[in-house]
Amino acid sequence: MKTELLGLRHEQLIELCLQAGAKPVHAEKILASLFRYHNTDLTAIEGIPLALANFLAEHVSTFEPECTASQLAEDGTRKLLLKMPDGKEVETVLIQGPGRLTQCISTQVGCAVGCTFCLTATAGLTRNLTAAEMVAEVMAGQRFSDGNVRNLVLMGMGEPLHNYADVAQFVRIATDPKGMAFSPNRLTLSTSGLVPAIYRMIEDELPCNLAVSLNATTDEVRDRVIPINRKYPIAELMQAVRDYIKARGNKRVLIEYVMLAGVNDSIADARRLCELVAGLGCTVNLLPFNPYPGAIYASPQAAAVSAFREVLVDASIIAVVRESRGRDISAACGQLKTETVKRRKKSA
Ligand code: SF4
Q1: How far is the CA of 125 from the centre of ligand 1 (A)?
Q2: What is the DSSP string of 279-339?
Q3: Using the 8-state DSSP alphabet, how is residue 257 labeled?
Q4: What is the CATH number of domain 3-61?
Q5: So which residues are the catalytic ones?
Q6: 294-333 tens-digit pLDDT
Q7: Which one is the CATH code of 66-347: 3.30.70.100, 3.40.50.720, 3.20.20.70, 1.20.1440.230?
């Protein structure tokens, strides 16, 4: 079986070049061809010796996922559905912010966590994505945006820390200054709260930011909203966040809080949230739930959102309300895939 070129780190590429009798500098030429010029054609890499080109043709492969659906929202958000070599599809989203383009990356086909507010969860987990497939997502985003993606967030389909080895490999490839060259400060990994894997991130000094999807302030509610809480309850999760901040120096952790009407949006919740994040210097992102057909939750009232935020701000906590982007094209992560699959079934 051939090695997948997109999933190799710089030092692994150097090893490959040495095996082929070429020089380490040729690894840089390959990286430049891939990531500066977005070229995955192994026969068209300029400046490498013929022997290396032949070696690559024999031993490595590369691919470009097919874009099977694309939607553009009024606010400039673009959703792409990408088909991987085995026919499995994942979503990636390009989000236009003020002066910067952020790409949301999927790390799995489906997800096993089962958050009850999430459309992706309803299909369960099909498989993990490889590091090469995540790199290919970014390359697709760069092609669509003329190379303008500046931030990456691992917040698409899947729980990144359930796919730790490939996600860690991807993070290292994405932040290699000679490769994709994203700043570690512009790459954020979001987790539903896999405590042991957060400690592994500390140990491995994974070069990225951490976001934790908290979404409740009591174990009783969090057990219902994010079932993984039964395994890693709030106290354990917040201790891991404290340990992460302590170990990573000035690294801040982003706390994400999806607001569900009548479930976790009360003033009492806001006060408990203040206690949970007190002294951590975390930023809290408040995300009013954006319903999708069949969802069991509703959006909170605008007044409830602003009253909730006020409690946090009064406690000197940075709290930002993030309205869902691309509302007119879909309400939830996973919806482009769901809609496309339904359309195909109808026309079959
Ligand atoms: S919110 Fe994220 S972790 Fe939870 S089920 Fe959906 S994709 Fe998985």
Answers
A1: 10
A2: TS--EEEEEE----TT-S--PPPHHHHHHHHHHHHHTT-EEEE-PPS-TTT-SSTTHHHHH
A3: E
A4: 1.10.150.530
A5: 91, 333
A6: 899 999 999 999 999 999 999 999 999 987 766 666 556 6
A7: 3.20.20.70
